[in-house]
Structures are given as C-alpha cells and as structure tokens.
Amino acid sequence: MKKIKSFYYEIVIANIYLLDINKREYDESSVYDGIWVTLQTFVVYTVISFIFILIRIFGTLQNPLATGIGVVILCQIAIHLIMKKLKKSSYVQIVHEEYLKMNVEERKKHYKRGLWKVIPIFFYPIIIIAFLKLITVIF
After folding, report:
1. Distance separating alpha carbons of residues 124 and 34, to the nearest angstrom
2. Alpha carbon distance 92, 11 (integer Å)
3. CA angle, residues 83, 12, 33, in degrees to nearest 5
4. pLDDT tens, 52-90?
5. Within 10 A of 53 (CB to CB), how many other CB atoms are there?
6. Which of 20, 59, 91, 95, by CA, is between 20 and 30 Å from 1?
C-alpha cells in the first residue's frame, strides 16, 4: 500500500508542477484527470494483455466481443472506484498543501520522479505489444 501511495503522490506532484510550469492556475479536476488517464492506460492494457495470454494458452474464447466489452466495463468500474476513493479522501488537496510548502528544488525532484513513473506507463502499451508478439512467435 505504501508503494501505491508513493506512486499517487509523485503523479499528483508532477501534475501540479506541470500546471506551474505552463503558468496555469491550480485546478484540482485537471490533476484528477491526469491520474485517471494514467490509471486508464495501465489497467486497460494490463487486462487486455492477460486476456491475450489466456487466449494463447487455452485457445479461443466463446464470445470474444462480449468478453472484451465486459472487461472494459469492469476496468472502468475499478478506475472509477479508485478515483472516487481519492476524491473522497481529498488526496490531491492534501498533496497540494504539501507542494506549496516545498521549495523549488524539492518540487523539481518530485516532478522528475513523477515523470519517471508516468512515462513508462504511456510506453507500456508498446512494451506489452512487443511482449505479446514475442509470445506469439514462441508459441
């Protein structure tokens, strides 16, 4: 749980710092949007890759379209529940208050950490596709 909180913390700091860099006013909803997009990318591609692996291992699915739609709906529900919990706990507001107490060097340090956590998630689909292609070639 501590790693997950650290992950969220760095993402929130990176989003807030990005608003500062772009001279935009702090907007809590845009920070939540950044978290939502990150989670969306990670969860959906992870689940799709597991389905692909299961198909490769066990053969074809009986209803691939229904399975795909069901998985996407379940992913959306899971992400919605995570976001609801974050909003209920006022997590972004708490991190923003800590952010305001930081000096410029600490902000940059957390921003770089956040980027190193977010960037691989957006390259994650490419990594998964390459991995799945490798599995296809092997099996």
Report:
1. 16
2. 10
3. 45
4. 777 777 777 677 777 778 888 888 898 889 888 888 888
5. 14
6. 20
pTM of the model: 0.70
Tokens found for residue 36: 């939502």
**Which residue pairs, CB below 8 angstroms and at least 24 apart, start in 97-101?**
99/13, 99/16, 99/17
Token digits of residue 10:
């760095």
What pLDDT score does 3 carry? 66
Distances (CA, A) of 71 to 45, 74, 115: 11, 5, 28
Residues 6+ apart with CB under 8 A from 135: 52, 53, 56
Give the closest residue to 15 by CA, choosing from 101, 107, 89, 85. 107
CA angle in degrees (0–180, nearest 5) for 81-85-87: 115
- Provide the token pair at 22: 């772009």
